[in-house]
Design a protein that fits this description.
By secondary structure, the chain is of the alpha/beta class. Helices cover 32% and strands 16% of the residues. It folds into two domains: 289 residues, FAD/NAD(P)-binding domain (3-Layer(bba) Sandwich), CATH 3.50.50.60; 161 residues, FAD/NAD(P)-binding domain (3-Layer(bba) Sandwich), CATH 3.50.50.60. Helix 1 packs parallel to helix 15 and helix 15 packs parallel to helix 17. The two termini are 34 Å apart. NADP nicotinamide-adenine-dinucleotide phosphate binds next to helix 5.
């Protein structure tokens, strides 16, 4: 049920809880806190809701999890009233949805926009967090929830002369709200991860020429996006309980491709070694036609962990690329080699490879022709100068930890989160950090986060934390903190699990390799959603084992 009136915060600047970040997780956490009777204020750096979907408004930006699955499951009213229009929702549609949810739940008056949190320190005597925003506004709260997002802090490439460019330049994650006119322009794009691969097909019709600077080519699968009909919606509504349950208990926690999965359900987790080559190829072809990342990832078991099974799928994708790209040089530039499928986050985009068959699109192979510098006129390679009007940087993020470590957070004894995470992020279940009482993280390192449908995974975490707060409340306890030994065990377990996968076989943001000096660890929990949920449930059954829940 959605209450029309929210209880007022006891005091604006001293609520029970502060939530940081108005993306999916933060909005839901705010709602959960209110339903539990806590006063809460949400602080958001930007001027509207959205989180990563506020900032990443580059042409072609859309989610690669199907809209039905990439949505809240906690409110029947919201499910009934909202209409998704496409299989994969665009950035604009997702942001509209988040705005709709916030208004429908009467949460907007609890959100302080343009409030970038810069410091948060725990005052032990008072048992409260002191929080300060960039504009000097101060808050204090018992609980602090960091819903700051795994992909929030953009990274510019380490290229000399970036500031000297005389044309326009943009990062995909800071795309201006007013839009950018690329019509008739010579555009250079650096980065072919999920953002770059989506942007390319969206701009080829308007640019005069697009130079795509490719360092490491990715495995890009087609989305096969389509408009949703009443029939799709009826199917979803009829089956939503079962589909939500399947999502929740899938390896990627809600992953993926709900409608497709229904069609392909029998083709999941097959033992590829028991199939003939012909059968394997037939199944992969069907998955390719279904579109989206999930069918190909889950058709065969052990794609994440067995190099032989992985190579079967990797080489299938390479063969699909060569069906589209005829030119040998372009094919070499765009074909992923030397690392397995999924070691980097898979990219999903319609018409990606097809874009490179157009006369106005050029793939520049940076392995063969490295960049020397950005110059006032464009980009200078070791053997060629390319004149540009616009440079687009789709160069990624300081992922998973960046948004947290960019706040000066101090726990007990003034220890900073940067110090606590010197050797890589340490947490218990990815949700709490020893020495930082009553501070909770949503979608962060040590949890399945980006390896799953983040909306579903953070919904699980919001419910989990809500239950734990209610448990503490019943026990008249005010402090919840991860115990160091439980945290150490979780971190050790997570790294053991990661060693059994292929995630460390590429230099990607999954392991912090894109940020010089960042400790190399597999940042998300690699054991999958089901193992994660089961581990959390076991902790609950043991009376929240590993959390110290106390009166002070
Ligand atoms: P990304 O995956 O980290 O890709 C960054 C790209 O920039 C890579 O191709 C990288 O090349 C290149 N690059 C960085 N520095 C460079 C340099 N100095 N010279 C040349 N190239 C350089 O970033 P992203 O594409 O923004 O995606 C990040 C994540 O956001 C995704 O993995 C995904 O989780 C999420 N996302 C999701 C969606 C969706 O749902 N569809 C859309 C967009 C983003 P190297 O690989 O060689 O380093």
């Amino acid at each position: 049920m959605i209450p029309r009136q929210q209880p007022p915060a006891s005091r604006e600047s001293a609520p029970d809880a502060i939530v940081v970040g108005a993306g999916f997780a933060g909005i839901h956490m705010l709602w959960k806190l209110q339903t539990l009777g806590f006063t809460a204020v949400l602080l958001e750096a930007e001027s509207d809701v959205g989180g990563c979907w506020y900032a990443n408004r580059y042409p072609g930006a859309r989610c690669d999890v199907e809209s039905f699955a990439y949505s809240y499951s906690f409110s029947r009213e919201i499910e009934d009233e909202w209409r998704w229009t496409e299989r994969y929702p665009t950035q604009a549609e997702i942001q509209r949805y988040q705005g709709f949810v916030v208004d429908r739940l009467n949460l907007r008056n609890r959100i302080r926009f343009s409030s970038r949190v810069v410091t948060a320190s725990y005052a032990e005597e008072a048992g409260r967090w002191a929080i300060k925003c960039e504009d000097g506004t101060a808050y204090s709260s018992t609980h602090l929830f960091l819903a700051t997002g795994p992909l929030t802090v953009p990274r510019m490439p380490e290229i000399a002369g970036i500031d000297t460019f005389s044309g326009e330049s943009y990062h995909t994650a800071r795309w201006p709200k007013r839009g950018v006119n690329l019509t008739g322009k010579r555009v250079g794009l650096i980065g072919t991860g999920s953002s770059g691969t989506q942007l390319i097909p969206a701009v080829t019709d308007v640019v005069e020429r697009l130079y795509v600077f490719v360092r490491t080519p990715n495995y890009v699968t087609p989305a096969r996006n389509y408009p949703l009909t009443q029939e799709h919606r009826d199917y979803w509504i009829r089956n939503r309980e079962e589909l939500r349950r399947l999502c929740r208990r899938s390896e990627v926690g809600g992953g993926g491709d709900v409608l497709t999965f229904e069609k392909l359900r029998w083709k999941r987790g097959l033992d590829s070694k028991a199939l003939s080559n012909e059968q394997q190829q037939e199944i992969m072809a069907e998955c390719w036609e279904a579109g989206g990342p999930a069918p190909l990832i889950y058709a065969f078991k052990d794609v994440y962990s067995d190099p032989v099974v992985n190579e079967l799928v990797s080489s299938f994708i390479r063969s699909k690329i060569s069906e589209v790209i005829q030119d040998a040089e372009v094919l070499e530039t765009l074909t992923p080699a030397g690392y397995p499928f999924l070691a980097k986050r898979p990219c999903v985009a319609d018409n990606y490879y097809e874009s490179f068959t157009r006369p106005n699109v050029e793939a520049v192979n940076l392995r063969r022709h490295p960049v020397k510098a950005v110059t006032p006129g464009g980009i200078s390679l070791v053997d060629r100068d390319i004149e540009l009007d616009v440079i687009v940087y789709a160069s990624g993020f300081d992922a998973m930890t960046g948004a947290i470590t960019s706040i000066d957070i101090r726990g007990r004894h003034g220890i900073s989160i940067q110090q606590a995470w010197r050797a890589g992020p340490q947490s218990y279940l990815g949700m709490a950090v020893a020495g930082f009482p009553n501070m909770f993280i949503l979608g962060g390192p040590g949890s399945p986060s980006v390896l799953t449908n983040v909306v579903a995974t953070t919904e699980f975490q919001v419910d989990y934390l809500g239950d734990m707060l209610a448990y503490a409340q019943r026990a008249a306890a005010t402090v919840i903190e991860a115990a160091s030994d439980a945290q150490n065990k979780w971190v050790t377990h997570a790294s053991q699990v990661a060693r059994g996968t292929l995630f460390d076989r590429a230099d990607s943001w999954y392991v912090g390799a894109n940020v010089p000096g960042k400790p190399r660890v597999v940042l998300p929990y690699a054991g999958g959603s089901i193992a994660y949920q089961d581990a959390c449930a076991e902790v609950t059954r043991d009376g929240y084992r590993g959390f110290v829940i106390s009166k002070s």
